[in-house]
Design goal:
Rossmann fold; alpha/beta; SDR_fam
């Protein structure tokens, strides 16, 4: 394997790693030699993914985390250090989205708005704070934040989600500016609508069946494998001189 995409012995935390796209990130990075931590609010799912990776010969740890709780994020980082001794990378994948009803902005309850911000923005902040001391002391680290292509076209009916993911874009740029001197890179990806298992489970079958791809350059549905390469690139040594950037992955629907 070429050195550029070799993840051997890199210790990578994937939040939301117990299911959906996060599970795919974990499995694929483990296949390239990473020691992965599947961190999820569903602790049983996190451990099931980690156990499957170990059974396949990889190294993995499953932990329960509520990223909206700062102490839980700190415990996630501590468990990673106990198991693997360091933290090389963090994929901020956990977010509230697929379970949110599609509805007018005016119908969104304030409590639901606050919960989305607590997870999608404060959770992001708290996860980064939890891993930063280790990365700073090692003078090396990789952070990848998962935003959404909705921020480019202002897709309607989930205003709180879109707003939170626009915040991820700004957060990525600002944090990259603050930690660059520590040799830590911070980048983001903006996926389009992706047919993960959780997305399929929580979507109206009629909505999925009637979706068209006329506005995409690549005329098919987006699947988790379409995102993995970009995230692994940002986790690898190939992107050591790239920071503060956001890569759009939506089949060419939006050019950025």
């Amino acid at each position: 394997m070429g050195k550029h995409f070799d993840l051997t012995d890199r210790v990578i935390i994937i939040t939301g790693g117990g299911k959906g796209i996060g599970r795919v990130y974990a499995e694929e990075m483990a296949s390239l030699g990473a020691k992965v931590v599947t961190a999820d609010i569903d602790g049983e799912s996190a451990e099931a993914v980690a156990a499957a990776i170990r059974q396949s010969g990889g190294q993995a740890l499953g932990v329960r985390v509520d990223i909206a709780d700062a102490d839980s994020c700190d415990a996630m980082a501590a468990a990673t250090l106990d198991a693997f001794g360091t933290i090389t990378g963090l994929v901020n994948n956990a977010a509230l989205m697929s379970t949110l009803p599609r509805r007018s902005w005016f119908e969104i309850p304030v409590e639901e708005w606050d919960k989305v911000m607590d997870v999608n923005l404060r959770g992001l902040f708290q996860c980064c704070r939890a891993v930063y001391p280790t990365m700073r002391d090692a003078n090396y680290g990789k952070i990848v934040n998962i935003s959404s292509s909705r921020i480019w076209d202002g897709s309607p009916n989930r205003l709180h989600y879109t707003t939170s993911k626009a915040g991820v874009f700004g957060f990525t740029r600002a944090l990259a500016s603050e930690v660059g001197s520590d040799n830590i890179t911070v980048n983001a990806v903006t996926p389009g609508f992706t047919l993960s298992d959780t997305q399929i489970q929580n979507s109206d079958p009629q909505y999925l069946a009637t979706r068209k791809f006329d506005d995409q350059l690549i005329k098919r549905a987006q699947v988790p494998d379409d995102l993995v390469g970009a995230v692994m690139f940002f986790m690898s040594g190939s992107s050591d001189f790239i920071s503060g950037q956001t890569l759009n992955i939506d089949g060419g629907r939006t050019m950025h």
